[in-house]
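Handout, section B. The chain below has 301 residues.
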Amino acid sequence: MPATRPPDGKSEGKTMEIVLAESLGFCMGVKRAVDMAYRAIEKSDGRPVVTLGPLIHNSQEIERLQKDGISVTDEDAIPENSTVIIRAHGVTPQAFEALKSRGLKIMDGTCPYVHYSQRKALELYEAGYTVVIAGDRNHPEIRGILGYINDEAYAVKTVEEAQALANLDRVGTIAQTTISPKKYQAIIDVLRAKSRELKVCETICDATEENQKAIRELSAEVEMLYVIGGSHSANSNKLVETAREKCPRATLIETAGEINAEDLRGVNRVGVSAGASTPDWMIQSVVERLREISVRLANPR
């Protein structure tokens, strides 16, 4: 597992080791959406470039995009003659058609995994299954999926919510792309006991699984662990939840400035992970902050 080297001239015994998760940060879908936004601004020819809702769940990256000329808006406030970028979480087909009817230029930044979930939900619905989505009904990804099936689905965030469902006949299930595989399997087990037939669609993003596996391994090897991600980011919060199974001091932070040096006094190994919407520059800023703290604690004045 990669670790940053102690600063030159400092013995490893006196400095804190900073260990990075094997898999962390931007997933393919988020990187694709951000890259698309910058391509749009390059080719805008002066026309406004806007995203329909926050492009990703990371307020610092959204601020960076806004400084570069990419605004966040909603359907009712889109300027005419705009280039509109669909967020990585996707939108309902109704929202998409409404944009097309206005003659706006549309760039679809929907994550390919989310597109897959949309298609699978529609297939289940058209085949007569009762659709159950393992995820948060209020999350933009799930709201977009529900638009494909007339909002006719159950959405359950927890095993307890799945247990509260009535017995069903033919059930088809998909998962929010960022849910933990462990939680999805637990919900599947409940649905299997409640239905005559259960069809399971695997719709969890590979990056989510890789990040979950990496943080599970890392959390067993460190005394403290920081997950860098937005407070509203589902996958970042799930990383913290997973890490705390073995590292109770796992903490979610949005910026390096939130790290308190006193919390690290006496810590020999600190871990770093990051949610799928966290860019490399934010990860690097946290690592640099931890290096500074390590040197300071090793050499008190």
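Note. The domain at 17-26+206-298 is CATH 3.40.1010.20 (Cobalt-precorrin-4 Transmethylase; domain 1). Compare this with the example in section A.
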